[in-house]
Amino acid sequence: MDGFIDKIMGFLESTRLIDQVRDVDYVGLFTNPWFLVPFIALVGYFLYKQKWRDLIFVAIFIGIWWVSGTHYMQTLVVGDELQVSKVLPVLFGGAVVLGIVIYLIFGRSD
């Protein structure tokens, strides 16, 4: 199992996916019509079909993306040391988001 995870992590490091996500130009992305028009169409479709669960998933994804780029998350690890006092709010927030997602997927029926 460890070899499988090592292969996945090696693939992610070779593609530099994490660096690409970190270096995204948010202002450029949300002013680019090639991204904005399909995104607005998707949100409009979800509103038209009243897919509230899917709209919440989109909002959670955008929220996690935004939070991962904040100064707070960048100072979570200083040098090679994890700042334990900053980990607890991140864990609590992740647990709340995970609870919401589990409730939306399994707790409710449409």
Number of helices: 7
What's the helical proportion of residues?
Answer: over 70%
Estimated structural class: mainly alpha
Distance between the termini: 38 Å
- Which residues form runs of ≥5 with pLDDT under 50? none
Question: What form results from the Cα inertia axes?
Answer: globular
Radius of gyration: 18 Å
What string, H for helix and E for strand, traces the elements in order? HHHHHHEEH
Major β-sheet annotation = 2 strands, antiparallel
Oligomer state of the chains in this structure: single chain
Strand order of the largest sheet: 1-2
**What is the beta-strand fraction?**
under 5%
Please tally the β strands and state the result.
Answer: 2
User: Kindly state the mean pLDDT as a whole number?
Assistant: 84
